[in-house]
Amino acid sequence: MNATLQGISLKDRLMSEYELQRTALLLNNPLLERFREGAAKSFGEKGFPSRKDEEYRYLQFNEILHSDLSAPFALNIDSKAKTQLDYSLIDESAPLIVISNGFFNAELSNLQSLPEGCAITSLATAVKQNDKHAIAVLGTLAKPAKDVFVALNSALFMDGVFIYIPKGIVLEKPIQILQHIQSEDSIFAQPRILLVAEKHTEAKIVHHNQSTRNTSRSVSNTVIEIELDEGAQVEWLSVQEEGKTTACIVSTESHVRKHANLRHISVALSGLLVRNNLNVVLDDENCEGHLYGYYHPSQDEVIDNHTLVEHRKPHCESNELYKGVVDGNGTAVFNGKVFVEKDAQKTNAFQSNKNILLSEGGSVNTKPQLEIYADDVKCSHGSSTGVLDPEQLFYLRSRGLRIEKARALLLNAYAGEVLEQIHSEDLREKLASRIEKLITF
Amino acid sequence: MLKIHNLDARVEEKEILKGFSLEVKAGEVHAIMGPNGSGKSTLAAVLAGREEYEVTAGEIIFEGKDLLEMSPEDRAREGIFLAFQYPVEIPGVSITNFLKTAIAEQREYRGLPPIEPKEFLQMMKEKKALVEMETNLTNRSVNEGFSGGEKKRNEIFQMAMLNPKLAILDETDSGLDIDALRVVANGVTRLKSPENATIVITHYQRLLDYIVPDFVHVLYNGRIVKSGGKELALELEEKGYDWIKKEVATLES
Q1: CB distance B88–A405 less than 8 Å?
Q2: Residue A5 confidence (pLDDT)
Q3: What are phi and psi for residue B70, nearest 5 degrees?
Q4: Which run of H or E residues covers position A296?
Q5: What is the ipTM score, two decimals?
Q6: Among A111, A276, A318, B165, which is least packed, fewest CB within 10 Å?
């Protein structure tokens, strides 16, 4: 998009990188060829979004998608990475996956405590070995034709992680993913994460994006595909704490089958730009999708959450609650769509978006959308944007709380409605205290 | 303890208090009665420090300090407590957490060490018994989904926990049935001591059957037009406020 001194746009550079690396990108698996070709073609046709693009209208990509970015084709990271990671949300007794610059970092990962039958491997390995469970899902949920960032990732991803939970396995401990960028050069990382939860499995995933110590002007473009088979129960917690120079784009495509239940909790706390596309397809009867989000852009940060829940079959339920606090010159975007297809009778679908503005300079753009093609459903949606309630503040102050303390208490309670959805008290408390630290006066 | 001298106060350009004066000493209970619109709630709001009320003349001295110079929180820390007419609901903040924070803030201001958790729990238990409050109510969010009676009880419970020098009860009796009224009033009476004082703001006399005042003042048109002992409240109950209004009219003409 941007012309550089050399006159090569980022799009052209990435396309030529694709051409040069075609063989390496096959990951020794000829089955990938058509998928890569199609993805590259989609990316080439779409190009990066401009502000005229409805889906990306609040994002200013000019500075972020600069032409010095390049996609890495090998993991190139020095050994001090370990000491620079933030392990504070990590349970040492549970499996840990570290994804560095888009690559599975075997040296820093710890998969010893994995129950029998489960598999966690680098995605590149799974593709090279033609793992049937991985190949069956890869690219089928996140379709390149739908979105430019999905297309780009599909064309250029080199690695990531594949998580396989076989039938009937109940995981007591969470599977943890630490994902970061640490690079002197500006990189456009393309990690890809696949989760296959077979029938009647239970799992919790903690996905912590953290590039707080990265100083290069980098971007991570992650694609996550989640397949929940019959009766599977999955809680996915996404925590985003990116550095001031790192942009984070995450596209999550999940597919929920009969009696399965996905709880997705997103806590986006910082980053130059954070964009989440979260799509949940309820594709069979009696399944549930629960989407909770808390976001807190401050300074000049932008946090943009796009969610889509598709009700395709009868008797399903979806609940969505996204709450934000906007400080400084921060910008929050919420765009939530709920589709109820013609067949999806007896659907219960609820969506709510709430925002609190703490500063004059902050802005909120919210667009809840409900499209219903069935006639026997219970659906509601709503959004609100306001300031902290002056009556509540006065009440607290009249009992002796400093105004700062009163505000912190109210904001903590506000975030608590989302955080209480997280299974672990330890994580809830740690995230609450991180949120408290974000509050400036 | 409290000296209010010639106070003028207004809200949204409307003069409400006009030359209001009152002196309250430690150990005393004062009742302020008056017809609707006489300025009762404005008085409570000005004492607690609501910013939308503007004081245009006069002074309020509390324990030798200029109250009007203080933020709402500093007034509370100096020992003033307002029991709200309409207590606010605060979803997500439990009563326990709220009071723990309030006590910590007040003690810090007064240079006291933090309260021991055990002592705090013991105090919670005692004070809950005092206002006959259900034990599990304190785990709930402040006032959220509370009945009118529970809200008022919660106000007196907070008052008991914070142990103020001066408590101002703003229409605490409104919306209470007789049982709740008795419980709330008993709580207030048992908290009375020679060191603290209470101002009871009310429209009706019935609360004063339980909280016996030392002085009764009639507020009308923004100032006190008549003061007397507890028998004045009974007289008002019997005769209403019209005779006071006539008296004032005669005096002014």
Answers
A1: no
A2: 45
A3: -100, 150
A4: none
A5: 0.95
A6: A111
